[in-house]
Amino acid sequence: MASEEAHVHHWEWSYYPLILVAGIFFAVPLGFAAFFVYGSGLMSALFIGLGVPLIIWGCAGWAGEGIANAENETGWALTGLPIFIVSEVLIFLSLFVSYWMLRLTAPEWPPPGSPEIGLGIPIFMTILLVSSSFTYHIGEERLEEGDKAGFIKWLYITIGLGALFLLMTGVEYTHLLGEGFGFSANAKSTAFYSITGFHASHVLVGLGIFLFVLFPALSGKISHVFVTGAGIYWHFVDIVWFFVISQIYIW
Predict the structure, then answer these.
(1) 113 assigned to some structural domain
(2) Could you write out the DSSP letters of every residue in 4-28?
């Protein structure tokens, strides 16, 4: 009888995914449309100001539910993650294909007026991102050994390296914008900011995921499935960066 009760099917439900989707809807399509289509910075700020808190609320609540049910971790989370990553690969591939078409059909490349983009900052950013994958892996090993404090320490280091990567992206953008190389300067600038910006947004999401791992961990609540999933996503972002630097900076 007890065995039958243990296997009784029940539905898992949550309203946090709906909150998250609503936040993304306000912050991304409405926020961008208000600024780039209708030219209203105020409306864009209002939409983003409404969407970002909803995104944080949705992510925090959803992560909290998952960690609270850590003892029931036999699910489809790690099976579904590769499917999600494949969809991300296709999006990145579409951006790279667009870049290749621009690059190979242009009569002159780079287009006139394009400043020379050095490799110093991108190489340093590569070192940061690769190092962050190693530090997170070390943290996972500490967690497997039961050393939660060690995991948290290496997670802090990983977050710091990722944040420094984004900081260097901002430094590079500031320098290029100062030289008049804006988003609509020419075909190269549009491709450059689209691809590097899209990748940077994934780094930002990855840091957000790490924070949702870190905060519960500080109170002793750690979901091993969540930790593994966060690592897989971060390593994916790391791998994509090699394509970004080889195609956008070196080629």
Answers:
(1) yes
(2) HHHT-------SHHHHHHHHHHIII
Owner of token pair 């630097």: 245
The pLDDT tens digits of the residues spanning 147-156 come to 999 999 999 9
Same-domain status, 176 and 136: yes
- Give residue 15's identity as a one-letter amino acid code: Y
Opening angle at CA 101, ends 100 and 107, nearest 5: 105
Residues 19-48: tens digit of each pLDDT: 999 999 999 999 989 998 898 999 999 999
Q: Are residues 63 and 86 in the same domain?
A: no
Q: What is the mean pLDDT of the chain?
A: 89
SS3 call for 95: helix
Q: What is d(CA 59, CA 149) in angstroms, rounded to the nearest whole number?
A: 24
Domain count, the chain: 2
